[in-house]
Structure formats: structure tokens, C-alpha cells
Amino acid sequence: MLLGAVLVLLLGQAAPASAHAALRSTDPGDGSLVQRAPRHLTLTFTESVGLLDDSFRVFGPDQRRVRTGEAAHADGRADTARAALPGKLARGTYTVAWRVVSADSHPVSGVFTFSVGKRSATTAQVDTGPAEDPLTDGLNDAARYLAYLAYALLVGAAAFALLCRPADTSALRRPLVWAWWALLGSTAALLLLRAPYEAGAGPGAAFDTAALARTLDSRPGWALLARLVLLVPAAFFLVRLAKRGVPRRPAVLATGTGLAVALALTWAAAEHASAGIQVPLAMTSSVAHLLATGVWLGGLVALLATLRGASADSLTEVVPRFSRIAFTAVTVLAVTGLYQSWRGLGSLDALTGTSYGRLLLGKLATVTALLMAAGYSRRWTARIAAPAAAVRTAVPERVPQPVGAPLVKPEGPGAPADEATAPDGVSDTGGASEPGGASEPGGVDTAAGADDTAGAVDTGGADARRRSLRRSVLVEVAVAAVVLLITTVLTGTLPGRAQAEAARQAPAGTLPPVTQVMVPFDTGADTLAGRGRVQVTVDPARVGLNGVQAVVYGADTGLIVVPEVRVTFSLPSRGIGPVDARLEDVGGYWGANSVNLPLAGTWTMKTTVRVSDVDQVTVAKRVRIAP
């Protein structure tokens, strides 16, 4: 019932979408000149979008903000955004900054312009508001990472207690309590930070009651609220689970599985899986992936806690069970991870040509290191399980002995001392002895052999094996934390498939107001080509692959031919660059079609113009690259 309610709550509004909304059209159109002032601004997107109180910011020809009506969906269509304009607008060029929330919960923004009556003589740069607040983004990312860690530990420790069946679960109480409180706190923080994260505002806006109410009316807000509600029955379940000797009935296992699946759905319903192609399959895969991550990585922490205080004998059954469960979890991770990678990338080129693809490669490398550490742990697991297997295989067979048959004693250093003989000549094992102690071949003292086999099991190295396994698992846990960190970053990164789709849409309205930069140069040479200007066009001037074209004009404003034009991009604030555009002379201008700019921000573009073998100059300009 609880799982069904969560499914209805979270999936009721889920619809096929394209992960990170792309702007399809604007009315008025970007760069258009209209003779009569429009009554509304209307934006149409490739998927349904959520609206904010400040979804539209309109600036007039005097760079002052124009008051607009409240943002709403046009004609009830979820893929549109509309705001009313004042009845009278002055003649000139208007700048519109917009910001909405795409179906996968990430904010999307852009800028476009239109003119009424005439175009303004100059288009000044206006402050259209922050695209993001670094502190809010940092706190939001930290809370998301903590939520992933807490969920993995919560599910992993619970699964370890139920499936591996350690004799004493007291060592798991502290991890379970910490994970529950961490998941509660991080979810509450995400709920409060949701409004400022969407609006690009500072964390102080988290306590705005109106903004919080708007968050609770959105699908991401519903998902976070559902997670908080689910933590209540989860607390009662964990209290019972932490008790010593908890029953492992099918009903208990089914309840725990249902709670784990329902919690995983709160992530799947509000992130990449809820938008794009094959939404039902993607959400199923996402839930399975998150569950397997928790069972394996959280189970490692539970194993680490159990290894600390458990006796060597109690581990001989628990450790092999976890090894088998972990192998199953890794198999599920491999299958679901392969599907999610295909769905997010869309093409092999996106694996190296997009930020999402490069992060995915980093995660793959880290998971490979984790599997290597896991393989090392499995060797120690086999050694811990070996003594128990040796005892089980050493079950003695009682061989019937004829009356009067002599006793054959085991040989070797571990052989017991001579058996005492009863006064009537019958040994205490039930066999008869010849006078003088002579024995006939054929008798075997199987009881003595069994005791000797059990005593031959090496118990002295059990503690050493346990310590070695603990060190190996500790390495796995450390690498697993890095894997979860990369996963957190991936869930907030534009997928390669969505980036390609947005590029195919290529509406002018998603571009920054200036994509052409005039770069004046003067090499000092006293020729028409010695000085002039270079018109550099960056298209579409947004994160990902861009085209760059450079046209060189001489001192007389006519086109000129020069031996070389080179353009590089750097982002000093992030330590990126220089990225060489590698321009080629394509006849009349210089161009390149695949310059990858991986991050949004203000980049430094350096243009080098060489007009002869000895005369060249480099000029730096700043270019804004949009998300």
C-alpha cells in the first residue's frame, strides 16, 4: 500500500520529456522588430517546465526593469511560459532574461531581445540577474551527496542484517542511526534550499514561506516531502531490526525491500530518469541501480563494522554470504549502468565531447579501481571461509571392527599416545588387543582421526585474516565514497543526449545577447593589413561544442587575407585553458566547428593575428558562455 501510494504521488505527473528543457520559440521572436507593442511574452519549450515568481525579467531601452505580470502557462500547456507586458512600451530594444525549471528538476535560463518601433542605437549590457549563487549551489550539492551516502548506508546495513544474518547486530546500530538522521537532515536541507537553488538566490531565501509553499507544490518538492514521510515507518522498522535476534521472516524482508524501493523512487522521480526517452524503463533502472549501490557499498560499511568486534568463528558464514550478495549487486549495477550510460550519452562522441561523458569516464575508472579492491577482498573472504569448509568435509566414517581386531594408530607428529588396554584385553575403543600389545592390520580408530582433523584446523591465523580483510574493505569504502561523489555530480550535469537535442533545436532565443565580438588589432606594420579588426563569432556561445568563425578586416574596412589567425579560450576562475580553437582557412574567413567549452562563465578569448612572418599581435576579450 505504501509503495503504491508513493508511485501514484510521484509518477502521476511524470511524462516523456527531453531532460533539461530547450527553448523552442519565443513570441516576439528573438531580434525581431515589431511595430506595435506586444501584450504578452510567450516562450515555448521542448518539455514541460516549472515557473518561478521571477521567471521573466524585462529591461527597457533605458536599461530599467519593466514591470510584468505573473508568469503562467499559456493556454494551460505545461511546455509554455507567459507573462503580461504593460499597455504602453517605449520605442526601442528590450532585453528579456528568463528562468524556468525543467522536468528533471534543474533550472534553465537564457536571454533574448526584441524591439518596438525601432532598434536602439546601442545595446548596452544590462544586469539580468545571477545565473546561480555559488554558496547555494555548494550547500545544495553537499546535501545531495550526504543524502546519497546516507541512503546507501541505510539500505546496505539493513540488507546486511537481514541477508547475511550475523549472530550479533549490535555493531550495526550506530551506522543505522547515523544514516537515518543524516538522510533526514539532508532531505530537510534540500527541501529548504530548493527555492533559492531554482531562483539562483542566496541561501537566506530558504526561509521565505511563500517560496517554500511553491516548492511543496512542485514535483521535486513532492519527492522530497515523500522521502521525509517514508523515513517515519523506516525508523520503526530499523528499531526492530537493530534488536538482537530479530526474526528473518519473509514479511520482514518484504517490508524492508518495499521501504528501500519507495525511498529510491524519490530520487528517480525528480532527476534525470523522470525526463527523456523511455521514462518507465529509465525509472525502473534508476531504482535498481540505487538499490544495488546501497546493498554493495553500504554493505561494505556494515561488514567493516561487523569485522571490528565479531569473533573469527562467527565470520565463517557471514562473510561468504555477503560476498555472494555483493556479486549479485555488482551484476545489477553493470547492467543498469550500461543502460543509463547509453540513455544519457546518445552517441559515442558524447563520451569525450561532453562534460557528462567525461564524468562518466571518470566514474568508470573509479568503479574499476573499486572492483579491483573487491577482488582482493574476495581472496581474504575465501581464506576466512576455508576453515569452516575444512571442518565440514572432515566428517568421519565409523568403520565396523570385528571383535579382536587390533587398533591401527595414526602416525605423525599429531598422533595420540598409546591407548590404555583394559584388564580383560579389550581396548577402550571397543577393539581387542593381542597379548603383548601386538596388533593386526585393518583396524582404524576413526574417533581419534576425527578429533585430530578438527584439531588440525589452523585457528592461530584467523585474527590475521580478519585484520587483512578489514583493511581491504576499508579501501573499498574509501573508493566507494569517491564513486558516490562522482554520481552526485553526474545527476546535476546536462546529459550528452539532452545537450545534442538542445543544439539541434538551436533557437536564437537561447543565445546570449552578444555572440559576435569585434577585436581591433594593430601590429605596428605600416600597411593596410597592419591594423584593422577581427570579427569573431562564437555559436551558440553555450556549454559544449561551439562553432568559431573569424573574419579579418583591414584598415580600409575591406576583407583582407592574412597568413594566420589563432583563437584560444581560457576560464581562469576554474583553471581551465587555454583551449585552442584550431581555426582553419576555409576561403575568405577562418573557422572551426567543434570547440568544446565545458563550463558556463566569462571566458577570456585571445585572438592572435599574424600579418607577416614577423608581425603579429594578440588581443584579449571576454566572452560569456551560457549554461
Features:
627 residues, alpha+beta, 13 helices, 6-stranded mixed beta sheet, 5-stranded antiparallel beta sheet
Mind explaining what this structure looks like?
This protein has 627 residues and is of the alpha+beta class. 38% of the residues are buried. Strands 2, 4, 5, 6, 8 and 9 form a six-stranded mixed β-sheet that branches. It has a five-stranded antiparallel β-sheet with strand order 10-11-12-16-15, with no helix packed on it. A four-stranded antiparallel β-sheet has the order 14-13-17-18, with no helix packed on it. Helix 2 (134-164) packs antiparallel against helix 6 and helix 10 packs antiparallel against helix 12 (462-491). The protein contains 13 helices and 18 strands. A hairpin with a 5-residue loop joins strand 17 (601-610) and strand 18 (616-625). It has helices at residues 2-11, 134-164, 173-199, 209-216, 219-241, 250-268, 279-309, 312-345, 349-353, 355-393, 446-455, 462-491, 496-505, and strands at 23-27, 32-34, 40-45, 49-50, 56-59, 65-66, 80-84, 92-102, 107-116, 516-522, 531-539, 544-553, 564-571, 576-580, 584-585, 590-597, 601-610, 616-625. Mean pLDDT is 74; it is low at 1-19, 388-399, 407-460 and 506-514.
In terms of topology, how is this protein built?
Elements: H1 2-11, E1 23-27, E2 32-34, E3 40-45, E4 49-50, E5 56-59, E6 65-66, E7 80-84, E8 92-102, E9 107-116, H2 134-164, H3 173-199, H4 209-216, H5 219-241, H6 250-268, H7 279-309, H8 312-345, H9 349-353, H10 355-393, H11 446-455, H12 462-491, H13 496-505, E10 516-522, E11 531-539, E12 544-553, E13 564-571, E14 576-580, E15 584-585, E16 590-597, E17 601-610, E18 616-625
Parallel strand pairs: 2-9
Antiparallel strand pairs: 1-3, 3-7, 4-8, 5-6, 5-8, 8-9, 10-11, 11-12, 12-16, 13-14, 13-17, 15-16, 17-18
Helix pairs in contact: 1-6, 2-3, 2-6, 2-7, 2-12, 3-4, 3-5, 5-6, 6-7, 7-8, 7-12, 8-10, 10-12
